[in-house]
Amino acid sequence: MGKTVEQRERVVVRFAGDSGDGMQLVGGRFTDATALLGNDLATLPDFPAEIRAPAGTIPGVSAFQIHFASRDILTPGDTPNVLVAMNPAALKANLATLERGATIIANEDAFTRRNLEKAGYAGSPLDSGDDALADFRVIRVPMTTLTTRAAEGLEGVGTRDAARAKNLFALGLLSWLYGRPTDGTERWIEAKFATRPAARAANLAAFRAGWSFGETTELLDVQYRVAPATDVAPGAYRQVNGTTATALGLIAASVRSGLPLLLASYPITPASELLHELSRHEGAGVCTIQAEDEIAAAGMALGASYGGHLGVTATSGPGMDLKAETIGLAAMLELPLVVIDVQRAGPSTGMPTKTEQSDLLLALHGRHGESPLPVLAAATPADCFETAFEAARLAIEYRTPVILLSDGFLSNSSEPWRIPEAAALPEIDPRFAHRPAGGEPFLPYARDARGVRPWAPPGTPGLQHRIGGLEKQDRTGNISYDAANHATMTRLRAARIAGIQRELQAVEIDAADNEDAELLVLGWGSSYGAIYAAVRRVRDRGMKVARAHLRHLNPLPPNVGALLRAYPRVLVPEMNSGQLAQLLRAHFLVDVRSHTKIAGQPLFAAELEDAIVDALQG
Amino acid sequence: MRSKADFQSDQETRWCPGCGDYAILAAVQGFMPELGIPPERIVFMTGIGCAGRFAYYMDTYGMHGIHGRAPALATGLATTRPDLSIWIVTGDGDALSIGGNHLIHALRRNVPVKILLFNNQIYGLTKGQASPTSERGKITKSTPFGSHDRPFNPLALALGAEATFAARTLDTDKQHLPEVLRAAAAHEGTAFVEIYQNCPVFNDGAFDALRDRAQGALNRIPLVHGEPIRFGPDRERGVARHADGDLCVVDVADVGEDALLVHDAHREDPSLAFALARLAEHDRLGGLPVPTPIGVFRAVERPLHGATAVRNAERAVADVAQLDAMLHAGDTWTVA
């Protein structure tokens, strides 16, 4: 049967089903196939906080969204073009995200009376008499039936096992629809179920049945092609999410500094992923400890740094509250410590699986006493690599705790990453102290030109010394309650951190042909993609906008003040109530305008587009 | 051989006159040369409280940490630096109140560190509030009508967490304290040592029943591995097991030496050591259960914390080629 093939520049697909339906699995596999095909892509998993909410209910819906294109893209997409709905709850939970004309591929076998009731439907929205879906193109596919039929006669495969493979049927169908190659996926199924022959056979059969269904059904008369992206820099690529990129950035910093890495963490959503990721690398100078609590995790990391290793602890919101005391100790001891805050919606337990950028002021100020420290934020999943590397470098070279802000969106979301050359990464010199020549006394709080004190881990002969949380005498490090000394030490500690600005590069301004732009949009952290995409859309409409993005939030890069004053208007979009905007106003007395979103969701390009246009016109 | 002076730092000690900490400091400094470890490979880590100052007075490496967190800091150090001899100095408030969680988990993990808990049954540095080892009914600044709460028995707590080494000694016993330090130093895993320490300002005399020469002879029950448990000026009393399994103090003349319990510090099961720690507890009206066993209650071998992690730490950091391989792991593709 002849099918039409149409080209598409970009497509957003959302797989949605019950949390037990394996949506993350097929979403991830679809993403791998798409990456290998050479499309640019961005993904966003969206899963419930409950491990297994009651099956078939709306709280139990788990979804995975992928945006792929033949040109470079920046976000996982605001609105899906295609929704795969494995049950009525998945349809209901995601309907509001769809635009008119979107395609819904529904597993009609799951639209039973009981499932409809669980989702709160009076009757089936798939029935032709129902106009709930009138605005959409609905394709009803009996996925469960077709999957079980495909598995009939396979050795050792029962009806229930067969039905469980229906997610692979959906993957097969979508793979056909967008022309994703099948051989990689078949190899992946073989490997994944290598030790379970029956499951392997059932999943392979389901995947092939989904593909064949696409080829033969009259419901689908068009197959789409999304050509490989062409505006991509040459090099070797892989797909990474923010968690993997962060882990690799830390390992790279360990290799380039020669310091073994210790990660101590307490399980917390969404930061646990980093503990899982790094614990897989145990060996090769990497050690992980699952601590008894958040405080201990920070303490163990600091203890490792004291011993001359690279100590790292990772957590999310509530854990940051608990680590504050240890971060303050690290600031006083002037020892390296990398603290990774995978931000989530707060306050308190808040919404653990939902993303937010609301810990900026906590990172900057959330300790007692005057204890400034470097704060960095990653912009994209792949950018987590460089930002983690930079955080570790600053911690080691400046003997300071550093807070790296990531968030739930970055840690789970993935994109293609141009793999750097390991040898091209800068070397990090820990400059350990050695015994002073000529029997001079060792001064643990003497400073070099940058204000950095010597780092002498235990085991260094002749440099035995004592450090602690009590205020220290300048140079000697002995306990001191002297008033003038405390003022001196407070200023020295602050000057060392502020001095990092001297080596920071100026923030790059993306003005395109908009040097005379009326508006600067300044962002930080994971809203990078949405802001950039929105700016591009506004420019496509003929309006002039400049854009810049901050990685370093303390100290700020040297040109931020000049930048803010160079444009008549400044818009700062954030997933919080305006924390960076408040900071910029306070520092630079510039009347920046704030665009905020506190919905536990990333910013969307479409809503930002409106905000930018408003700011230009208003 | 190094001398005591090699372990004395140039810092002026600032405990109150008569504080038990002076005696402990002198004993520890005096014992250090015996270790045969150069001072640069010895680390003292402390928390907050009077005991926390200990680190400043040792001419070794030292970190005066934050309240209750020394076991966490030390776990990070011990995991990454198995070449060091790490000693934690803590107090009853530091270890059993604010740092209780870190203490029990260090014991559970069997981290290779020594923990010296100075127990004076009072908060000293904050000027005299009830501590988690203060006896019920104790009148302090924070408990003017008497403490309501039952105190922790530090050794019972440690043994409940299955500490692989648990001992008790006295600040002023110049012979027994170094003996216990020696045994602790020889232990590979976490060594927990409770040291009864007199606070002359806020809780003076709390341990007189043991520290005083005459009373001490009556009330100290020395535990010696492999020997029947006997005590008293003429070793006329002893510890035996009732038919119901409970331990009790007996007159040797009444029951005969064969009826006495023979101390076995190497018993895998900590129950008997736990019972010894709680001996006379039911008679306890004041702060101190007397008579009181001192010595090594338990010393058993168990795998150390992160036996594998420690090995990993010895492994070199990856080289650039290995890093390249990690960066290129999984599916990759090339754009020309």
List the keywords.
heterodimer; A: 618 residues; alpha/beta; Pyruvate-ferredoxin Oxidoreductase, domain 3; Rossmann fold; 6-stranded mixed sheet; 20 helices; 37% helix; B: 336 residues; 8-stranded mixed sheet; 3-stranded antiparallel sheet; 12 helices
How do the helices and strands line up, and which of them pair or pack?
The complex is a heterodimer of chains A (618) and B (336).
Chain A: E1 4-7, E2 10-18, H1 23-37, E3 40-46, E4 61-69, E5 82-85, H2 88-94, E6 103-107, H3 113-119, E7 137-141, H4 143-151, H5 159-164, H6 166-177, H7 183-192, H8 197-216, E8 222-225, E9 235-241, H9 242-257, E10 261-265, H10 272-279, E11 286-290, H11 294-306, E12 310-315, H12 317-333, E13 337-343, H13 360-365, E14 375-377, H14 383-398, E15 401-407, H15 408-412, E16 414-418, E17 466-468, H16 483-498, E18 519-524, H17 528-540, E19 545-550, E20 552-554, H18 560-566, E21 569-574, H19 579-588, E22 593-596, H20 605-617
Helix pairs in contact in A: 1-6, 2-3, 4-8, 6-8, 7-8, 9-10, 9-14, 11-12, 17-20
Chain B: H1 20-35, E1 42-46, E2 61-64, H2 70-80, E3 85-91, H3 92-98, H4 100-109, E4 114-119, H5 154-160, E5 165-170, H6 176-186, E6 191-196, H7 208-211, H8 213-219, E7 220-223, E8 230-231, E9 237-241, E10 247-251, H9 252-255, H10 271-277, E11 292-299, H11 307-314, H12 320-327, E12 332-335
Parallel strand pairs in B: 1-2, 1-3, 3-4, 4-6, 5-6, 7-11
Antiparallel strand pairs in B: 5-11, 8-9, 9-10
Question: Can you describe this structure?
Answer:
The complex is a heterodimer of chains A (618) and B (336). With 618 residues, chain A is α/β, with parallel strands linked by helices. Helix content of chain A is 37%, strand content 19%. Chain B has 336 residues and is α/β, with parallel strands linked by helices. Chain B has a single domain (4-227, 263-314), classed as Thiamin diphosphate (ThDP)-binding fold, Pyr/PP domains (Rossmann fold), CATH 3.40.50.970. In chain B, 30% of the residues lie in helices and 18% in strands. Chain B has helices at residues 20-35, 70-80, 92-98, 100-109, 154-160, 176-186, 208-211, 213-219, 252-255, 271-277, 307-314, 320-327, and strands at 42-46, 61-64, 85-91, 114-119, 165-170, 191-196, 220-223, 230-231, 237-241, 247-251, 292-299, 332-335. In chain B, the strands form two sheets. An eight-stranded mixed β-sheet of chain B has the order 2-1-3-4-6-5-11-7, with helices on both faces. A three-stranded antiparallel β-sheet of chain B has the order 8-9-10. In chain B, strand 5, helix 6 and strand 6 (191-196) form a beta-alpha-beta unit. In chain B, helix 5 (154-160) packs antiparallel against helix 10. The longest helix of chain B is centred in the N-terminal third of the chain and has 16 residues, at 20-35. The N and C termini of chain B lie far apart (68 Å). Chains A and B meet through helix 1, strand 9, helix 9, strand 10 and strand 11 of A and strand 1, strand 2, helix 2, helix 4 and helix 11 of B.
